[in-house]
Amino acid sequence: MPDHLDELTSLLCRSVSDPTLQKILFSTPRSSKPGFIRVAIRPIEVRGSRMLQFTSQSATQQFHQNYDEPAAAIELVRLATKEFRNIHLVTGVGSYEARFSRKGKCFLRMEARRQAKVSKEVAGIETSLQSANPSGSHNRVRNYLIPEGVPCPFLVQTGVMSKDGDVHTSHSRKFRQINRFLEFIHDVVDQLPTDRTIQVVDFGCGKSYLTFATQYLLTSLLKRDCQIIGLDQRSDVVETCQKIAEELGLSNLEFEVGDIAGYDANREIDLVISLHACDTATDDAIAKAVCWQSRVILAVPCCQKELNGLLKPGTLSPITSFGLTKERFASMATDTIRATLMKVAGYETQLVEFIDMEHTPKNILIRGIRKSKSGEAVKLAGVRAMKEHLQMRTLLDVPPLALERRLTEQKALAWELG
């Protein structure tokens, strides 16, 4: 049987400049000594230049290195001839499987894409997609912060990904949700301290997909020092998450059993996360963050029942005459009140769509960034926001809701209305 080593090295060298390259995966180390168990490669753009990102994975960690095309070709050949026995390469034309026997002979097999010939209509769609992609890449897979096809330890451990980096169909929505949330954190990372360890609390962490994702983004991708606490009331969930963190060797990630309202951090907290904390638990999380003067607050509320129960039947009729519209109006109004009160407390606040409605109806994210400046302008902005809030509450004919009560108790809304 012929040896395909020369053919493989030629293929790898050509792939670095192939615009249809999607991924290359090296697995099954040649040596039994501790080291990297796999290396995944994908094309990326850095400052307008094409690079290849190498993600090397050990049993507990990942390391990223970007190479230009000539350097990438050299590294690909080294990995193939010195480090690993199995290589999986995927391009727009087809996929290639290479395997080295224990005697060093190379076997290579190609599987061509099905439907190699496309109709003019499909070609037209591809042209449209390419024109919408300014990078010029033929790979139309969304450029997620955590990409598909590259094994990510916490996603593998929590069952979202296979060991080869493929996202399980049953977790595809969760995968998109995780990446969308990381985009929000990535957008505000400049607001977090650079001269010390970033302190993060995730309230109501649940199964902690986003807690692990936040740790991965800050530590592995952005190379920032951080300490993260995940808090939840369910001891069984906390125990499971803590076990996963220990198995992955994540010493800067801990989980605790506790109630949001009664939690005391005993240190400065920079980023507060709250995803789908039910009803007024979201208010407890926001109030804690304001009390701590956290730099960033990211909250996705859930099942806002308080205002819905307080709206009188005749208020804003006919909106409140129908159960469905009353519930949705109460939900939107509650989030508007929360965002406005955060403005009063000194935050620049936005309400943004968290993820498409097709994935979850709980798709409003409240993003608050603490204003770095103080003075008359900040005070006037707080006064204006408080006036707007009181006008809205008068219109709805309701008493102070949970967040207003919490912030009043901690004197975060002590503006004089003149």
Produce the secondary structure layout:
Blueprint: H1 5-15, E1 23-29, E2 38-46, E3 49-57, E4 62-67, H2 69-83, E5 84-90, E6 94-100, E7 106-112, H3 120-131, H4 153-157, H5 172-188, E8 198-203, H6 209-221, E9 226-232, H7 235-247, E10 253-257, E11 271-278, H8 281-292, E12 296-302, H9 306-310, H10 323-344, E13 347-353, E14 364-370, H11 376-396, H12 402-409
Parallel strand pairs: 8-9, 8-11, 9-10, 11-12
Antiparallel strand pairs: 1-2, 1-5, 2-3, 3-4, 5-6, 6-7, 12-14, 13-14
CATH class of the largest domain, anyone? Alpha Beta
Number of domains: 2
Contiguous helical run count: 12
CATH architecture descriptor name of the largest domain:
3-Layer(aba) Sandwich
Q: Structural class, please? A: alpha/beta
Query: What amount of the residues lies in strands?
Result: 15-25%
Q: In angstroms, what is the radius of gyration?
A: 26 Å
Lateral strand order in the biggest sheet: 4-3-2-1-5-6-7
Q: Name the shape in a single word.
A: elongated
Average pLDDT, all residues: 85
Biggest β-sheet: count, sense, barrel?
A: 7 strands, antiparallel
**Span of the ends, CA to CA:** 90 Å
- Low-confidence parts: 114-141
Strand and helix order: HEEEEHEEEHHHEHEHEEHEHHEEHH
In total, the number of strands is 14
| Percent helix | 25-40%
Full CATH superfamily name of the largest domain: Vaccinia Virus protein VP39
The fold-level CATH name of the largest domain is Rossmann fold
